[in-house]
UniProtKB/TrEMBL annotation:
The HisPMQJ complex is composed of two ATP-binding proteins (HisP), two transmembrane proteins (HisM and HisQ) and a solute-binding protein (HisJ). The HisPMQ-ArgT complex is composed of two ATP-binding proteins (HisP), two transmembrane proteins (HisM and HisQ) and a solute-binding protein (ArgT). Its main location: membrane. The keyword Cell membrane applies. Belongs to the binding-protein-dependent transport system permease family. HisMQ subfamily. It is a multi-pass membrane protein. The chain crosses the membrane at residues 20-47, 198-221. It is found in: Cell inner membrane; Cell membrane. Keywords: Cell membrane, Membrane, Transmembrane, Transmembrane helix, Transport. This is Histidine/lysine/arginine/ornithine transport system permease protein HisM. Pfam families: BPD_transp_1. Residues 23-218 form the ABC transmembrane type-1 domain.
Length: 237
């Protein structure tokens, strides 16, 4: 049994010429989901914070649906639900896209991450001090410049602590990828457990890897927060 586990554990960390390791797949899922979600969330957060209900309401519906339903259900809808629709599997482009477990998983994760990030950023935008906006307007800045130079930079900095927690939660959510047969860390652990019946060792390695990634994320975000939020600390005289 121990020899079998020794054969499996490199699959957690090391890639061969044909297959990526569980660690690489997990990090790929996390990075793509976070980057795609962030890029989509910034403009949606601006729309969500708008006083125009025709602009903010559709975004509210989107975030309400994706935050109000389990990510697992969203993954199943992307992985098996959409492909069952005739216009999807009959279209060569859509059919090829939704036939891939990785594509469906990334789509579900990115849309879910975008919904949470949108609400985090929109809340930070609403909390922007009116004095900052008034000063920018008095300086002669247009509405676009006020957003790009004052509101967004300030809001994104203040949203960083909440956003860092969301990134860690997204890492935890990547464990659902194995249900779509994506070979992430948890999928490798399940395969090792099935072959060796050494449950504690198989899942213990997975737990140690996830904890290591979380530690690295926390360390990185703390360093970033110290740098970008330094202006909020009380200044000595």
């Amino acid at each position: 049994m121990i020899e079998l586990l020794r054969q499996y554990w490199p699959n957690y960390l090391f890639s061969d010429g044909y297959n990526a390791s569980g660690l690489v797949i997990t990090l790929w899922l996390l990075v793509v989901s976070i980057v795609a979600g962030f890029l989509l969330a910034v403009p949606l957060a601006i729309a969500r914070a708008s006083r125009n209900r025709w602009i903010s309401r559709p975004v509210w519906v989107y975030t309400y649906v994706f935050r109000g339903t389990p990510l697992y259900v969203q993954l199943l809808l992307c992985y098996t639900g959409l492909y069952s629709l005739h216009f999807v599997h009959a279209n060569p482009v859509l059919g090829d896209f939704f036939r891939s477990a990785m594509n469906c998983t990334l789509l579900a994760f990115a849309l879910n991450e975008c919904a949470y990030a949108t609400e985090i950023f929109a809340g930070a935008i609403r909390e922007t001090s009116y004095g900052e906006i008034e000063a920018a307007q008095a300086y002669g800045m247009s509405k676009t410049k006020v957003y790009t130079r004052i509101i967004l930079p300030s809001a994104l900095r203040r949203a960083l602590p909440s956003y860092s927690n969301e990134v860690i939660l997204m890492l935890h959510a990547t464990t659902l990828a194995f249900t779509a047969t994506v070979p992430d860390i948890l999928k490798v652990a399940r395969d090792a457990n099935s072959a060796t019946y050494m449950t504690f060792q198989a899942y213990g390695i997975a737990a140690a890897l996830y904890a290591s990634i979380v530690f690295a994320l926390i360390w990185g975000f703390r360093r970033l927060e110290t740098r970008v939020l330094a202006y909020l600390k009380p200044q000595g005289h």
